Amino acid sequence: MSYIRHKAEESLEDYLETILILSRRLSVVRSIDVATELDYSKPSVSVAMKNLKNRGYITVSEEGYLHLTKEGQIIAESVYERHTLLTDWLVHLGVDPKVAANDACKMEHDITPESYEAMKKCILPILGRD
Questions:
Q1: Of the four listed, 61, 71, 121, 122, which is most buried by Cβ atoms within 10 Å?
Q2: What is the mean predicted confidence (pLDDT) over 44-58?
Q3: Where are the chain's structural domains?
Q4: Nearest to 127 by CA among 93, 89, 94
Q5: Mean pLDDT taken over the chain
Q6: Does domain 2-73 correspond to CATH entry 1.10.10.10?
Q7: Using CB atoms within 10 A of its CB, is residue 111 exposed (0-12), middle (13-18) or buried (19+)?
Q8: Sorting pLDDT into bands at 50, 70 and 90, what band is 9?
Q9: Which residues contact 92 (CB under 8 A, 6 or more apart)?
Q10: 52 pLDDT higher than 60
Q11: Cβ neighbours of 130 (radius 10 Å)
């Protein structure tokens, strides 16, 4: 049961991260934009958006525009930071960028905050970001 719950949480984090990324690229973000970005079906995204809205992570305007709430923004930025740092580190180690991004996506959800912060302290200087 905890595995299923965990996978559900990963999915929600991926949706929040995608909304964040799209909001930086587009003037407005709609469910169809999320579906296109993730290559998911419109009905799947619609269910996920309803779930995110019910949890208080997003709001949806009358026009269908998606906006992260403060809590949703915090989660999305945290996931995005982990994803970006882990991807950059793997690329630095010589991993193909596409493989690195896919691996980072898997790692970003499972790493504990304690381990991530320890890795971050070591990785940032290596990447010249200290």
A1: 71
A2: 96
A3: 2-73, 76-126
A4: 89
A5: 92
A6: yes
A7: middle
A8: confident
A9: 126, 127
A10: yes
A11: 8
